[in-house]
Write a structure and sequence with these properties.
It is built from 26 helices and 20 strands. It is α+β, with helices and mostly antiparallel strands. The chain has a 6-stranded mixed sheet. It has a 5-stranded mixed sheet with strand order 1-9-8-13-10, sandwiched between helices. It has a 3-stranded antiparallel sheet with strand order 14-15-16, covered by helices on one side.
């Protein structure tokens, strides 16, 4: 029989308040150290100024972080945030954001996931859940409109996130509460999160809040899972207009702008990037991979089943799931996207599709970010080949060695214990030439974009508050646009970053970008019938600048310095050689000048600090996180 313990202290929720349409008007704060929970109303103006998702989560981190903290300390908050669009009929709106100070970077980290957890979480009657403190023993947190409770997680500790979630859902459903609320949804960590691997994920239904190690933050709190269920609905300002707009957006989502994602998925990017010479290969030593065709979508589907699926409340259906047989002999499906394909394939010199699929599945089971995992293994492979570390079994192209190392990382065994720290920390420990070869910015490993070719993307990597990231800065769009190179790219880079932060705050899938004639105007149009606000594109772009500045200010409060806003020495010193083409170089002085120009464009100092009057302007003067 499971032990269910109610958290001490009343949950002071006022269900009779009249919040802004689209919101419940409050967030839930839970302290695992003293077993208390409280509902906190939003201050006037915060919702319109920060929206939801990443924006609202950034504001919460400012308020809930007590000065400069260690990312894995009990007092470091972990924030789950929903958005005003969650629960609406708008396609792709079933998303949630998770934020915390990253144990990998020591800077702000936000990660998004698409699943029914977002819908069930918002139905608990809260716009966000803030978790602080740490439990003395493994627990799972249970949140419903009736209150907050926890369950012991002793029996789930050590299990995969999927197994743990299934066990918890089964126990919680035994008393019939799942029928009252339409079923529990559970976000959980795997063994990597329990062992504080610095790039561990939080998972729900095989979808992951993947980057930056939020699973380790959860593990440091001895929190195995968060279960949510409820029946609280929000009102919408203009339901009829919202339904009409939802139908039109769904129609557009099935048009040519998303055709590639439906038909082939993002895995098709691998062949395209290889042809363009911008496919990171063997730890960014090359931009072309001779085995790329073996990892093309059609090749992956050879001799194995492939199915398509959609995220919750999504009409696009971009997920491509491939059948793979696990070590236990059972067949399972593994979702493949460009990033896990590149990181576990070309980046490590591995071209065997079965090995790459197995590697992705193992990362899912252990709860590991595939980008950071692949980058850490590839970095170790190069260090081993150069004689910087004594790992004779680890060589580029050795798929069996890669699989073994993934298991060792997830369980922190032998050399895997070292690689579980991430490439920046490992490189500092190795010393010598290693720091210049570690593929990271601010500690976050680079995704599958070669910055010596895509130089607007290089700027996006350098200045992004989260570190090297392709989702928070879509600057690669600028690289493919005409007449926007060099200093002319600053404004466009800022614009696509602003559009990205708006989509991450509303929250909408970025695969919808192409359906909007003007993205800011399109998003403003969606927000109106939900909230009743007469929002313009100009106001939304101002909001985006506020959120980006708030992220920057959080980092400054947590110890950021200007020398972090650059790229690893390899990209600044080593030209990228391409057969039949001139070598591609990234000039360090030019990048530094672009970073300075970006900072000034944002209204910050040229070094990247936020002026005091700007903090007052965005309502963050006196932020606890900057104390």
């Amino acid at each position: 029989m499971s032990l269910v313990v109610a958290i001490a202290g009343s949950v002071a929720c006022n269900w009779r308040m009249s919040p802004v349409p689209g919101y419940h008007g409050q967030y839930l704060r839970v302290d695992l150290s003293n077993g208390t929970s409280t509902c906190v109303p939003w201050p006037e103006g915060v919702l319109r100024n920060f929206l939801g998702g990443v924006g609202l989560g950034t504001w919460l981190l400012h308020q809930e972080t007590p000065g400069r903290v260690d990312a894995l300390a009990p007092e470091s908050p972990l924030v789950f945030v929903f958005s005003p669009l969650v629960g609406s009929p708008l396609t792709t709106s079933a998303k949630f954001a998770v934020l915390a100070k990253s144990p990998l970077t020591g800077r702000i980290n936000d990660s998004l996931s698409s699943s029914s957890f977002a819908i069930a979480g918002k139905r608990t009657g809260h716009d966000a859940i803030v978790i602080t403190g740490a439990s003395p023993e493994p627990i799972s947190l249970v949140v419903t409109p009736e209150g907050v409770a926890w369950e012991t997680a002793r029996s789930e500790w050590g299990q995969s996130s999927r197994s743990a979630a299934e066990a918890l859902e089964s126990r919680l459903g035994a008393d019939g509460s799942d029928e009252r609320f339409g079923g529990f949804q559970v976000a959980a960590i795997g063994p990597a999160g329990e062992r504080l691997v610095r790039y561990a994920t939080i998972s729900h239904d095989a979808r992951h809040a993947g980057r930056g190690g939020l699973g380790a933050v959860m593990g440091s709190k001895r929190l195995k899972a968060v279960a949510v269920a409820g029946d609280r609905q929000v009102a919408f300002s203009d339901p009829d207009r919202l339904v009409a707009m939802s139908r039109e957006l769904s129609r557009q989502s099935l048009g040519p702008a998303t055709a590639k994602y439906r038909e082939l998925g993002t895995v098709d990017n691998l062949v395209t990037f290889n042809r363009l010479g911008t496919l990171p290969t063997r730890n960014f030593q090359a931009g072309e991979f001779e085995g790329a065709e073996r990892l093309a979508p059609d090749a992956l589907a050879t001799d194995r089943d492939r199915t398509r699926a959609s995220c919750a409340a999504c009409t696009i259906g971009c997920e491509h799931i491939f059948a793979v047989t696990g070590a236990d002999g059972n067949e399972a499906g593994v979702r493949m996207e460009y990033e896990n394909l590149f990181a576990l394939g070309p980046l490590c010199g591995v071209s065997d599709p079965e090995i790459v699929l197995q590697a992705s599945r193992r990362c899912d089971e252990l709860g590991l970010d595939t980008i950071s995992t692949g980058a850490s293994v590839a970095f170790a492979m190069e260090c081993a080949e150069r004689g910087l570390v004594d790992l004779p079994e680890l060589r580029f192209g050795d798929g069996a060695a890669m699989l073994s190392m993934i298991d060792d990382i997830g369980h922190r065994r032998e050399a895997g214990d070292m690689l579980a720290e991430g490439t920046r920390i490992v490189a500092e420990r190795i010393g010598g030439d290693a720091p210049g070869l570690a593929p990271h910015v601010k500690g976050l490993e680079l995704p599958g974009y070669e910055p010596r070719v895509l130089q607007a993307m290089a700027l996006g990597f350098a200045v992004n508050p989260r570190g090297a990231d392709h989702n928070r800065s879509g600057a690669y769009e600028v690289d493919f646009a005409p007449d926007t190179q060099g200093m002319d790219s600053i404004g466009p880079v800022v614009r696509v970053e602003d559009e990205a932060v708006l989509m991450d705050s509303l929250i909408l899938c970025k695969f919808l970008r192409g359906v909007f004639e003007d993205r800011a105007s399109g998003m403003a149009g969606l927000l109106g019938p939900v909230t009743g606000w007469d929002v313009t594109a100009e106001e939304l772009l101002e909001t985006a600048g506020r959120i980006v500045t708030a992220k920057k200010a959080y980092n400054i409060g947590q110890g950021w310095t200007p020398d972090e806003d650059t790229l690893p020495q390899r990209f600044l010193d080593e030209p990228l050689k391409q057969e039949g083409q001139p070598a591609r170089e990234l000039d360090a002085d030019r990048l530094a000048a672009q970073v300075k120009a970006y900072n000034e464009f944002r209204g910050w100092t040229s070094e990247g600090f936020v002026p005091a009057d700007r903090l007052v302007e965005i309502g963050l003067s006196g932020s606890p996180a900057m104390a």
